Amino acid sequence: MKFDELEETAKQYAEAEAARQYLMEFRKSKKALLMAEAERESPKLPIAAQERYAYSHPEYLELLDGLKVAIEKSVGLKHQLAVWQMRFETWRTQESTKRAEMNLR
Q: What is the pTM of this model?
């Protein structure tokens, strides 16, 4: 394991998690903007219809695709960091066992 690779992965994870969180919050804003657009087009449109318009709008669906990609990247990097942590703990245990065996001789 190389620490520079670990640091780079941690940085990438932080960036991916920030993007995921941003898109989660922006999704709410996008819905509100699209509902306002629907209301401008049809002022007497009920809230439920505005919401349906927003959720089915191509821009909202595109945002969801981007959110999916961001989540996949974030989760993948998180698991990669966990695997590296497990490898490190395995190495530590092996080294400890070696030291203990040397003391028994």
A: 0.78
Contact status, residue 1 vs residue 88, Cβ threshold 8 Å: yes
Give pairs for 32-39: CB < 8 Å, separation 24+: 34/59, 34/60
Nearest alpha carbon to residue 17 among 70, 84, 81, 83: 70
Cβ burial, residue 9 (10 Å; 0-12/13-18/19+): middle
Q: Measured on CA atoms in the order 19, 68, 71, 80, is the torsion positive or negative?
A: negative
Strand, helix or coil for residue 51: helix
Read off the pLDDT of residues 74-97 as tens digits, 9 standing for 90 and up. Answer: 999 999 999 999 988 999 999 999
Q: Using DSSP, state whether 88 is helix, strand or coil.
A: helix
Q: What angle do CA 18, 20, 23 make, to 5 degrees?
A: 105
